[in-house]
Each structure stands twice: as C-alpha cells, then as structure tokens.
Amino acid sequence: MPDPGNGTVGTLRLPAQVHFGYGARAQLPEAVGVHGRRVLAVVDPFLVRTPFLDDTVGALTAAGLDVRVYSDITPELPVDTLDTAAATARAYGADVILAIGGGSALDAAKLIALLCAHGGPLSRYYGENLVPGPVVPIVAVPTTAGTGSEVTPVAVVSDPTRDLKVGISSPFLVPVAAIVDPELAIGSPATVTAYAGIDALVHAVESYTARPFDLDWSARLPVFTGRNALVDGIALRAAGHLGPWLPLAVREPTDRRARQEVAMGALLGGIAFGSTGTHLCHALQYPIGALTRTPHGLGTGLMLPYVLDALRVDADVAERTATLGAAIEGIPPGEASAERTVARIARINSEIGVPASLADIGVERAHLPRLADLALGSTRLIAIAPVAPSRELLLDILERAHAGALADRSAK
C-alpha cells in the first residue's frame, strides 16, 4: 500500500552502541574487546606518536588486546591503496577494526573491513546494496566533527577510471560502535573545523528537505530511503547545535562548549542523512571538487545557500527551509522564513571563511554546463532532491553560485 501520510515512514540503521561526551573514549576497551582480541587500528597519519594514540593503544593492550596500528592513509582514498591496506589486515588476522581520525580514515576502515570479509576488487561493490554480507566489525572514533561517517552506511573512494569519486553504500558498512569524544577535536585548524562543520549542516538540511519515497516494503529497500519520520527531529536538532556554535568553534578552537555543540550536531547530522541520503549540494560538489581539488565540505557549504534559494520556490521546501532556519537561529517559527534561512546560512559561510562564489575557487563560467551534466549523472543523489531537477535548474544554481548572487524574489 502507498504511504498515505506523504513521508510518515522511516528507517534507521545505526551502530549498536553510540557514546557521546567528553571522556567517552574510555569506553574503547569494552567496545572493541567484545568483538575479538586482534585489533587493527586504522588511524590518520597525524595521530601517530601523539599522546592520544599512545594512551589508546596502552588502554587496549592493558585490557588484553593485541593492537597493530596502520596509518598509511592517503587523502581521497585512491582505490589501490585500500587493496594494500586490506592485505595487511588479512595477514594480521584482524578480528575488529578500530577507525580513528577524520572522514578519510573512517571510510578507509569501512572499505578495509569490506575487502577483508569479501575480497576485491573494490569496484564489485560500487553503488548500493552490493555488499553481500557482514564485514569485519568496525568501531569508529571521529577526530573531526563533520562527515558523520561513524554512524553511516557509506564510504567514498577515488578511482582513476572514474571522473568523480565513487560511493559504496550498504547497511553492512555501518560501524558496530561509534564513540564521539569532543576532546579529540579541540585545537583542530580553523579550516578543518569550518569545512567539516558546514558539511554537517548540509547533511542536516538535505536530510530534512529530502523527497518522500514510496517504499515497497516487500522488496529490498534502497540504502537511503528519502524523507524519514524517524529522523526529521534529529535533523532539526543537528541544525540547532551547528548554526549558533560553528562560527565560535572556528574562531575559538579551544572553546569546550563550542566543540561539544558542533560534535553533537555532526553526529546527529550523520544519523539523519545516513537514513535519508543527501541531494543537490552533494551532487554538485562532486564534479566541482574534482575540477578544483577543493575540500568536500567547502564545496557543499558553498552551494548550500544557492541550492536552498533555488528550491524555495516550491511551497513545501520553503516551509521546511523556514523550519530549519528557526532551529539554526533559535527563534520562534513565526519569525522564520525561507528567505531569512538562506541569508543566515550565507552569513555563517562568510563568518567561517567558506568562499562566496564558484569564481572564488577557480571555476570558470565555461565549466558550468559540464558541471551540470556530471551532477545529473549522480542519479542516487538527484533522486533524493525534493523537486525533480532539470539541467536548466542546475545551470541556474551554478550560474548564481558562480556570480555569488542569490536570487532577488522580493517582488514575487
């Protein structure tokens, strides 16, 4: 039967354990040890020889676990580097993989766990629902607040045979445990905080504005299931944690309250989009990022006000955008509007150093048609957009983003 409530259905696929708070990393020996004795710790290279990693390995060893550290993580995750990492994990006989770091380290751990369990090549799993069964258990500990990868069913890899990054999406990639300790992000560089944090806000916004799907409960569900009654409130909470606090976390990298709020927002944003999926900001960022070699969060954040500005001509999207704005600003819903939300997000971008236009990051106007065509090719993301985007709509968004000019609808 079709859903009579236009989006009043929901799915959740989450770790069995999620721990959040200052000091939560003390739960690691228990969270890891229940899955086996041999632990492959996949960590960002910058963590090697830091007190945090030394303390973590020491605590695991004291709990009777055998730990091997693997830190040869290459940004953007070229596919061939993951084959090498998986060979190391298999030779070691890892029972569980502990992922510590930013999005690249967490995604690398997911893909290593996949290759350990099911073998390569990785290209067998590109797309959705192609992982045949459980992977090696993953315990995820993020050190940045943004990707939400510690709670999501997706990992992204770079393949030299493809124009854009490639996603592998499966419920089997959801970690068995996520431990989010805001202490680990204190002192992160301003640009890392800004780009990761604004990407987390995009996750919340795109989750809340996702298209409702008419799910066929008798068939295998897609990994991302569109508008989701179980996470709508979570997406709004994520926006409420991020909007007021992200600029302060960028300005004051050691502010403990700001770090806590942004970490909570990023975690909740990951929970939200891990069920619903993301849409146009991400579809556009993939070709923009490939062209300009700019960070993922910079691109999604830059595009966010332009995407929302274009979509708010739809009455339902406008209402939801206004509701998001009330959460971001902490104002009564009656004072909120879609236009005010767009303007506030643009100001947040300005405050944290996200470029205002595509021209600012080296995109030429002649590139825009090709960017629109590549974005349209991201069919999974396009399908989640709240309106069916035409090439003309995407070109209009790109044109405005290139010029740095939001639409003037004051006369409408």
Automatic annotation (TrEMBL):
It is an enzyme of class 1 (oxidoreductase). Gene3D superfamilies: 3.40.50.1970, Dehydroquinate synthase-like - alpha domain. Residues 193-401 form the Fe-containing alcohol dehydrogenase-like C-terminal domain. Its EC number is 1.1.1.1. GO terms for molecular function: alcohol dehydrogenase (NAD+) activity; metal ion binding. Keywords: Oxidoreductase. Residues 15-182 form the Alcohol dehydrogenase iron-type/glycerol dehydrogenase GldA domain. Pfam families: ADH_Fe_C, Fe-ADH. Belongs to the iron-containing alcohol dehydrogenase family. This is Iron-containing alcohol dehydrogenase. It comes from Micromonospora profundi. The lineage of its organism: Bacteria, Bacillati, Actinomycetota, Actinomycetes, Micromonosporales.
